């Protein structure tokens, strides 16, 4: 178990987020952390988590195998997830998956020969208003079709990092795993990443264009009227 | 029956009036996720106001507002807060941000575009239930949401809205943004608690309920992230104002997430009780060449309704009367070109994949239903298969450990009720099989 000092320091920083005596809460972030080092949850990673938390390797493995984001085999730098749940499928998600599967010559949860790209079909990614959706390392590429999705992975293959429709500029799966472990985004451009797609704003924009606003209110009005008598705020504490 | 809904370029005035931008309003401001912009847009005013009241008064106010949970079950929020005993133990607020119900897509844009509203709501709710620690359990895949929430926590802490002695009130609060790792079941509140404790996300037996025995066996209030983000608005606007935004028996606004065969899918925040006909009109009408055939009022776990229900007000009570559940108001719109059998097959595959395996009805029932669907869709279905599906659903509904198993039956039983002939078409050979039976091993 040769984890560098930085990983050990990060593990300590994760533990203190939870109350004393409740450190096991750190297990999910710790698994993301070892994945940030190894690119998957390795035997060493399991042993490391067990050691840090003082639990058995079996206990760690029982957890790591329960969650789909923990990869059991080395994953590529780019995890391409295609939603094929009902709504995305109806709008072409399965065709997108099949096209990528052909292009990359891999199936679900498999990694290309060069080790760069892992393909998976995903369950609902909570972006049904942009169906069909694809994510790369969990950043959104909205309103996909086969041609757009093929362009996307070809760019990845060529070493470029296409800009997502919503989310931060791409970083590798290992880098994103550090954020999944609960550490803050260090790139200002990451925080700036777009979150305002057309569908997200559809209702709010329609209302704004029609000049519709919610009824006005008096923000200083007391919260409660008790027996007809208005209850005044308590005196400053 | 199917219905063609005309799509005027601009919806009629009466329909436009259903729009009530409250929770979604700040989404239009590009920098609202930053503290300085949020503060210019009424940010943290509600917190200052709330801290002037006693905890009991805040809870009474929340009950008075009629605010109900936005995570699917619609439980009265004030009552939930009141259930947390005032007993001097450690208390926790846990925010459920594990959005993953198929069709549901309103919490991610909320967290990405207005994270401080979530944090402000958390501080007010934590103060009301006397919690000094709050956890936001964010779906792992929602990385941009977690990123902006973490930034919001840091900004709020630096400004004195979090940490020790918040705004001089003597109230302390720490907020931790905890990313999950990909498991739909963790949206079930007790599975979420187990997951947050570093275990497999499997639901717990109730009673005892989380209000008294929740996170670390301590009193815990679990609220959906949309429920929490509405709190600052309600505190500022007042109970009567919030009630006036909805309809009779249904206070407030609701973000209807329209997806599928409409011209402009998206998030439409309207009065609770808006109808599908009105929503489709707001979304520019049906997609060219598509006629409405069926829809889910609130995600895949809510029974589908046919086009006949186009004028049902989509609120808690009226949707229940129509035979479904309001759920998360994830309105998935399907047309005459979307085979309901295929739709259900894909949903059941989802439930089979996401079943945690703890209880037999859900683990086995979903696994076998997938096989029955694949037999039907590969043209090898038998007449008895429909009874088999119905019988599987009877063994799942009410007999599963948690709501996941119940939810799985919704699409099967409702589609068999409305679209039995679609199933028969595959069985009787009127419809081309979707798969090659040999290839998928159906028999």
UniProtKB/TrEMBL annotation, chain A:
Pfam families, A to Z: 2Fe-2S_thioredx
Region of interest: Disordered: 217-237
EC number(s) recorded for this UniProt protein: 1.6.5.11
Compositionally biased region (Basic and acidic residues): 228-237
GO MF term set: 2 iron, 2 sulfur cluster binding; metal ion binding; NADH dehydrogenase activity
Binding site residues for [2Fe-2S] cluster: 83, 88, 124, 128
UniProt cofactor(s): [2Fe-2S] cluster
InterPro entries cross-referenced by the UniProt entry: NuoE-like, NuoE_dom, NuoE_N, Thioredoxin-like_sf
DNA repair among keywords: no
Protein name per the record: NADH-quinone oxidoreductase subunit NuoE
Cofactor note: Binds 1 [2Fe-2S] cluster.
Annotated Low complexity bias: 217-227
Keyword Kinase: no
Record keywords: 2Fe-2S, Iron, Iron-sulfur, Metal-binding, Oxidoreductase
Organism: Glycomyces albidus
Family: Belongs to the complex I 24 kDa subunit family.
């Amino acid at each position: 178990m040769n984890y560098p000092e930085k990983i050990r320091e990060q593990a300590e920083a994760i533990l203190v987020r939870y109350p004393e005596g409740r450190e096991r809460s750190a297990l999910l972030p710790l698994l993301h952390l070892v994945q940030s080092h190894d690119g998957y949850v390795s035997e060493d990673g399991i042993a490391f988590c067990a050691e840090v938390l003082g639990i058995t390797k079996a206990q760690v493995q029982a957890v790591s195998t329960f969650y789909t984001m923990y990869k059991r085999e080395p994953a590529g730098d780019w995890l391409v997830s295609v939603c094929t749940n009902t709504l995305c499928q109806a709008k072409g998600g399965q065709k997108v998956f099949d096209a990528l599967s052909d292009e990359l010559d891999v199936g679900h949860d498999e990694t290309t020969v060069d080790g760069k790209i892992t393909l998976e079909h995903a369950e609902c990614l909570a972006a049904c208003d942009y169906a069909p959706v694809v994510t790369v390392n969990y950043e959104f590429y909205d309103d996909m079709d086969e041609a757009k999705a093929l362009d996307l992975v070809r760019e990845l293959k060529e070493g470029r990092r296409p800009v997502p429709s919503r989310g931060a500029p791409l970083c590798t799966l290992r880098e994103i795993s550090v954020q999944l472990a609960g550490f803050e985004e260090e790139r200002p451009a990451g925080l700036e990443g777009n979150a305002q797609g057309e569908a997200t704003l559809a209702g709010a924009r329609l209302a704004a264009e029609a000049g519709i606003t919610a009824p006005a209110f008096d923000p200083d009005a007391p919260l409660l009227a008790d027996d007809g008598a208005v209850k005044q705020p308590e005196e400053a504490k | 029956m199917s219905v063609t809904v005309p799509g005027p370029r601009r919806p009629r005035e009466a329909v436009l009036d259903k729009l009530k931008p409250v929770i979604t309003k700040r989404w239009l401001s590009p920098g609202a996720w930053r503290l300085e912009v949020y503060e210019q847009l009424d940010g943290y005013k509600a917190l200052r106001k709330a801290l002037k009241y006693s905890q009991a008064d805040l809870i009474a106010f929340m009950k008075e507002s009629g605010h109900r949970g936005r995570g699917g079950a619609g439980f009265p929020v004030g009552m939930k807060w009141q259930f947390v005993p005032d007993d001097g133990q450690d208390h926790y607020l846990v925010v459920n941000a594990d959005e993953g119900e198929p069709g549901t897509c309103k919490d991610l844009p909320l967290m990405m575009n207005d994270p401080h509203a979530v944090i402000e709501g958390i501080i007010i709710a934590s103060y009301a239930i006397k919690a000094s620690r709050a956890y936001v359990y964010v779906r792992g895949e929602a990385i941009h949401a977690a990123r902006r929430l973490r930034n919001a926590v840091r900004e709020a802490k630096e400004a004195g809205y979090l940490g020790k002695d918040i705004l001089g009130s003597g109230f302390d609060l720490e907020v931790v943004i905890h990313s999950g790792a990909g498991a739909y079941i963790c949206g079930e509140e007790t599975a979420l608690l187990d997951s947050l404790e570093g275990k497999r996300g499997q639901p717990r037996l109730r009673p005892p309920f989380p209000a008294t025995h929740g996170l670390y066996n301590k009193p815990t209030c679990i609220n959906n992230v949309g429920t929490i983000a509405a709190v600052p608005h309600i505190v500022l606007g007042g109970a009567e104002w919030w009630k006036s935004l909805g309809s009779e028996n249904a206070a407030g606004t609701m973000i209807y997430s329209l997806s599928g065969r409409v011209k402009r899918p998206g998030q439409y925040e309207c009065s609770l009780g808006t109808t599908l006909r009105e929503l489709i009109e707001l979304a520019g009408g049906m997609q060219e060449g598509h006629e409405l055939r069926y829809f889910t009022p609130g995600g895949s776990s809510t029974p589908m309704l046919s086009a006949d229900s186009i004028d049902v007000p989509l609120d808690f009570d009226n949707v229940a009367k129509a035979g479904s559940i309001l759920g998360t108001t994830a309105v998935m719109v399907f047309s005459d070109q979307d085979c309901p059998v295929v739709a259900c097959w894909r949903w059941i595959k989802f439930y089979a994949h996401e079943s945690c395996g703890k209880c037999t009805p859900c683990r086995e029932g979903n696994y076998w239903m997938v096989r029955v669907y694949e037999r039907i869709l590969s043209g090898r279905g038998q007449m008895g298969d429909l009874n088999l599906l119905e019988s599987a659903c009877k063994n799942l509904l009410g007999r599963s450990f948690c709501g996941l198993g119940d939810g799985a039956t919704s699409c099967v039983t409702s589609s068999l009720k409305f679209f039995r002939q679609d199933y028969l078409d595959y069985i009787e050979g009127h419809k081309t099989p979707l798969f090659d039976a040999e290839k998928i091993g159906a028999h």
